[in-house]
Amino acid sequence: MMELRPIRSKREHQAALKESEALWGAPEGSHEADRLEVLTLLIEAYEHEHFPIADPDPIDFLQHVMEARELARSVTKP
């Protein structure tokens, strides 16, 4: 069981992921569930800093959603 503190390295990140996976089915309200919640916050903070995901271009995103839903552009005349 790792000490709960900020994650500062890849090794600590991997250990936190492994422990969170082991705690995944913990009963709600249990000590293990509380530990999982804190670990999740620490993992999220580390990943936000080290693996940032840029926001998608809004037009590209809209086109992707339209294609995925098989929607077409339509032009309506007033």
Would you kindly provide a written description of the structure presented here, covering whatever features stand out?
- With 78 residues, the protein is an all-alpha fold.
- 58% of the residues lie in helices and 0% in strands.
- It has three helices and no strands.
- The protein has helices at residues 10-23, 31-50, 58-68.
Task: Give the count of helical stretches.
Answer: 3
* N- and C-termini, Cα separation: 66 Å
Residue runs with pLDDT of under 50 for 5 or more positions = none
Q: Quick one: how many beta strands? A: 0
* Overall pLDDT: 93
Percentage of β-strand residues:
under 5%
Q: What structural class is derived from the secondary structure elements?
A: mainly alpha
What overall geometry do the principal axes of the alpha carbons give? elongated
Multimeric organization: single chain
Largest pleated sheet: none
H/E series, N to C? HHH
Gyration radius over CA:
20 Å
Task: List the SSEs and their pairings.
Elements: H1 10-23, H2 31-50, H3 58-68
Task: Please give a handful of descriptors for the protein shown.
mainly alpha, 78 residues, single chain, 3 helices
